[in-house]
Every structure is written in structure tokens, then in C-alpha cells.
Amino acid sequence: MYKILFLLLLSTFYNCYCQEVPPPPPAPSLKNVKKYEKPQEIVELTESTNLEKEICNVQIFEIDSTSFTDNSSKYYFKKIESRLNAIDLEISSEEIIAYTKYRNSLNFNPFKIDSVARAIYKLNENSKFEEAINLSSSLRIISPNNITLHKELAYAYKKLGQIELSKKHFEMMKKIISAVEKYSDGCRINPYILNNCFEGISLYEAIFGGYPTKTRFILTESKKIIYGYDIYHIMRFANLNHYKEYLKEGEYKIE
What we know:
By secondary structure, the chain is an alpha/beta fold. The protein contains nine helices and five strands; from the N terminus they run H-E-H-H-H-H-H-H-H-E-H-E-E-E. 38% of the residues are buried.
């Protein structure tokens, strides 16, 4: 039943977002794609007994990181990358999540992904659809399984009348969201498995139909970085521990 409701919600989102209804409230302005915005704050929280009682309702996907570079493995990153770039809708949830885990293990500044993603969002918001599509090629290179990538391409192609391409990217977006929700549920104990901060905003829009009004980095008691998204008191979290080495003292607030 949940899966049926989830698919109905996404279909409604497609009909609204890709047709008459204008994009949600604007993302923070981006003056230069090459620059990225630093986090608003890091909040250090004590994990309470309530969190210990929180029940995880999803499967846990464990994978040996050596599989990412083993060309005989189904999780070899180049194999998955090729399928993602071909928009292969037969790709599995496990392959999608494995690729996210691979990308997050690299020595790559994820704020750069946020910068490009925000710029694409802004271009679509300003009805510069062809420019959004062109810039999306940069995002595809560094994050081909990104929810924002396929969500914004679906919107841009729809506005340009290229319906088949729009539907294909929308279906890939649904595929990625289903994979994320299969192996994470956005709670504190099992936060969403995402590539970057802004991807969570796209996920939030697709599921809840709104742009988060509050976002923040959180440093947990176990010294892990998660990212919180809040709108109308609906709070969800993403596992973004790969941002940790790019967050400097003085750029955040500890409570």
C-alpha cells in the first residue's frame, strides 16, 4: 500500500511540477557556479534515549568497498556509471546505492556538486531551460545518480516539449528515490543515503511537495555529520559524513 501511495504522490508531483504549477520557492541565489555555499551551522546534539528506541523500518545495505574497483563485480563503479549515463531503467536499487557509497568515498569536495545543482535549479526557475540542460551535463559527470539532475532535466525537457526525454528522466528520478527509501528512511538512526545537501532538497520537494525552510548540519554524539531538512515540522535527515573534512572551525556553531 505504501509503495502505491508513494508512486501516486510522485505522479502527482510530475503533473504539477512539470506542467502548470511554477517551481517551489526559490533556492538561495548563486552568483557563481564555481563557488559553493558553506553550511549555515553545525549543531552538536546529544543522542537521547528516545533515539535509541527509534525503530529502523528499512533494510540495511552493506557492501565491501573493494567491490567498487573490482571489474568482475556487479558493483564495479564503471559498469554502474555506464548504465546511469544510458538512463537504464532496469538498474537495481542496490547498484544505485552502491554507486552513491562509491562516490562518497572519494576525495572530492561535495560542495561543488551543490553549487552546480543549485545553479541548474535557478536556471529552470528563471525559465532558462536550454541553459539548465547544458549545465546538467556537468552534474552528470560528477553525480549521474543524482535526484536533482533527473528532476530538473525532466522539468526542462517538459517545458521544451520534449515529452519522451522528460518522462525518461522522471522515471529515473523515481527509480533513485525508491532506492534511497528502500535502504534508508530519513530518520536520525538511518538517515537518507545521498550524494549531497541539495539532493535532499529535491527529494523533499518530490515527496512532500515543498522546499525546506530550515536546513542545518548536525554533529552527532558519535561525531558523524548528518544534514537536517525541515518544513512544516516534517524533519528528515541525510547521512553526509563525507562533508566532514570540508567543514572548518569557525564556519559552524556548536550548541
